[in-house]
Amino acid sequence: MQVSFGYYDLIEAFSESGCAVCRLVKRDVQRHLDAILYEHVTDPRIHKHFRASRGLCAEHGQMFIQPGGALGIATLYEAVVDELIKTAQSTTDLSLTRGLSRLLGKNNPVSDALSPAQTCIACETEADSEARYAEILGEHIREEKLSSAYRESDGLCLSHFRHAVTNAKSAENAKLLTAIQVEIWSKLRDELAEFRRKYDFQNVAEIMGAEGDSWLRAVRLVGGE
Length: 225
What we know:
Blueprint (H helix, E strand, L loop, with lengths): L4 H9 L6 H20 L4 H10 L4 H7 L5 H27 L12 H5 L7 H20 L3 H8 L6 H9 L4 H29 L14 H10 L2
Helix pairs in contact: 1-8, 2-7, 3-5, 7-9, 9-10, 10-11
């Protein structure tokens, strides 16, 4: 069987807590951001993308901030701010030639011109990674190593499970993906019920077991990491 590195990445990630795809996608995004910051800060194509996307989105902008990255970030965001200034000034000047009223209302030309013309570069990496892992799961879930690792894991978050089952290569694969995820959800539901039971004042003397953090896992498993 010929498989990509992502196949083995998934098997390894399933052994850790939380959604394996969430973890791998975040790793891939961070690696890409690090590569931009430390290897491609002066790349004209990166500058062009940052200008068009108005930098990074809020989530990935926070991932971009790291020790030792100040100069690279300043270099890239100087280009972004320069683009914002030029766009705002040129749009305002053009609007004024057509009357001040053009700058009022919902269809404000300045606001429209400042909207991102391209997706955040890290969001693109995130989408590509999610699609790749979903495709691997959808194609290889009947392989024993992968299905066993999945079954013994915390499962996928709802978003990534939906993505994986949508990309199943056959009805059998979709059925197996769903069956494993339902097993995991069922176990979590039982742990949540046990947590609530022990949380009751009549049972507070009982020691919490694996169900102790079930409420945290539930939030992450449904909403994503």
